[in-house]
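Q: What would this chain look like folded?
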Amino acid sequence: MAADQALADGLTQNATQFGTLTVGSQKYKAADVAKVLQDRITAQKAVITARGTLNGAVVAAKTQLASSRALIKAVKQALRFMFSNDVTTLAMFGLAPNKAPAQKPATKVAATAKAKATRTLRGTKGKKQKLAITAPAAAPATPVVETPAAAPAVASPVAASAPASPVTKQ
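A: My prediction, written as structure tokens:
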């Protein structure tokens, strides 16, 4: 903008030194070129003014949004509570029903481990036999801390006895 102003001032002050300027195939008087430059300067000043107005409006909008955020959040929450079973009414307000809370990863891991243990324990059996068996609840995953090994236990002589023979009815 400053360069355009300097060029316009120079053309106005020195217009008498040259009659017309030929640019391409057209001839221009110094006053005509100075007017084009003044129009450019005016347009640039309008942009600066509009940018200042825009910045002021943006600041005002951000302030308004920040000051009303808690109220709007509470209103939306109240509407979701009031119309939790009526999706069409919520849609009239531009709201979606509350989502079910997502499971935590630890819960998913425990459920998967329990399902796998149940499947292994049940094996291949009939429907009624499968329903009678459930796996114990899986212990939470905690780091294993090893303790120093104790002296090996001596096997008792009772444990080394021969297996008992099956009892049969006669």
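The chain has a mean pLDDT of 79.
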